Amino acid sequence: MSNFFYRNYRLSYIEDRSLLHGLQNFWTKFWLVALVVVLLLLPLVLQKYWIYTLNLAAIAVIGALGLNLLTGYAGQISLAHASFLAIGAYSTAALAKAGAPFLLVIPLSGAIAALVGCLIAIPALRLKGLYLALATLAFFVIVDFAIRKAEFLTGGGAGTHVPSPSMFGYTLTGDQSFYYLSIGLATLCAIFVANLQRTWVGRAMMAVRDSDIAAEMAGISIFRTKLTAFALSSFLGGMAGSLLGYYLQFINPDNFSLSVSVAYIAMIIVGGMGSVTGSILGAVFMTLLPEVLRISIHVLSRVLPALDVESKGAFVEGAVYGLVIILFLMFKPEGIARFWRDLLVYFRSWPFAH
């Protein structure tokens, strides 16, 4: 596999045809197996709070993959991603209360979000950049208003309860059992998005992102491509919202505020746009960052009580959060994914790395 800017191409037809690329190498297989073992054993050694945080990170990975598909691959800016999580979560609450099977609720919730997401693709045909961002922001406001007013369905501002998921007579309760579900679904979504790149759909998205005029001259339908991008992105966002609803078991509009949309944008910027690895690393990093900051602030307040850092914790967290995004935009626009790629190149070429 060779790298050209942000894209990958393969020199072997067998490698290009494979579902998981790069597994022909022994060490790649070894580290992949090691990673799987570590992920399986983590819930057995971690405290309950950290398992809870990892569950949120796995859900964030699914949502970040969806937004990266839209923004990183198709080049369409969206401030409404939290709306699709909300649609997925509230759809899950309604379907679960109606007695729908758990295995159908998550994809159905994603499909409902995808149908709504197709509505944004209509103005997206003529809007770009800041204008598209404002249009998606308006859509977010509409969805938020509808959720708060439709009390008969959503519970309004008070929120609504989501029944516990059950499968084959077994109820998924507790952080540990939910961990394996969220990690498994996040893995499947990552494989799906990674392989979407080499289909005509993925290549059409990247062509539209690079130049929609050139793409149209090449025979690519701009409307169909943008419609597909919004639908797939909304579907993954709806699935993430569905999982979040099942996990929290109680949802309200504050779970899907504008700050959630901004957080997902931060994830794909810090992780690396147009990269599956970047979506994963960015989601995990930005989910763990607030927790690490809280621990650091608590320790610092004990070591230096005169500074009274703990009382300014919210300000410090927000400042560091914003600073991280700015620093990545300025000095590492390709995100953590570039660090990871450089690290792999270094070890592959060792001891001749330079």
Number of strands: 6
Number of discrete domains: 2
The global form is globular
User: Do you know the CATH topology of the largest domain?
Assistant: ABC transporter involved in vitamin B12 uptake, BtuC
Mean pLDDT: 85
Give, in order, the helices and strands.
EEHHHHHHHEEEHHHHEHHHH
Fraction of residues in helices?
Answer: over 70%
Structural class by SSE content: mainly alpha
How many helices does DSSP assign? 15
Give the arrangement of secondary structure elements:
Elements: E1 2-4, E2 7-9, H1 13-17, H2 26-45, H3 48-73, H4 81-97, H5 102-124, H6 129-149, H7 151-154, E3 160-161, E4 166-167, E5 170-171, H8 175-196, H9 200-210, H10 212-217, H11 222-248, E6 250-251, H12 258-271, H13 276-303, H14 313-331, H15 336-349
Antiparallel strand pairs: 1-2, 3-6, 4-5
Helix pairs in contact: 2-8, 3-8, 3-11, 3-12, 3-13, 4-5, 4-6, 4-11, 5-11, 9-11, 12-13, 13-14
Provide structural commentary.
With 354 residues, the chain is mainly α. The chain has 2 domains: 1-45, no CATH class; 46-349, ABC transporter involved in vitamin B12 uptake, BtuC, CATH 1.10.3470. The chain is 73% helix and 4% strand. It has helices spanning 13-17, 26-45, 48-73, 81-97, 102-124, 129-149, 151-154, 175-196, 200-210, 212-217, 222-248, 258-271, 276-303, 313-331, 336-349, and strands at 2-4, 7-9, 160-161, 166-167, 170-171, 250-251. It has a two-stranded antiparallel sheet. α12 (258-271) crosses α13 (276-303). It is globular and about 60 Å long. It starts with a strand and ends in a 5-residue tail after the last helix.
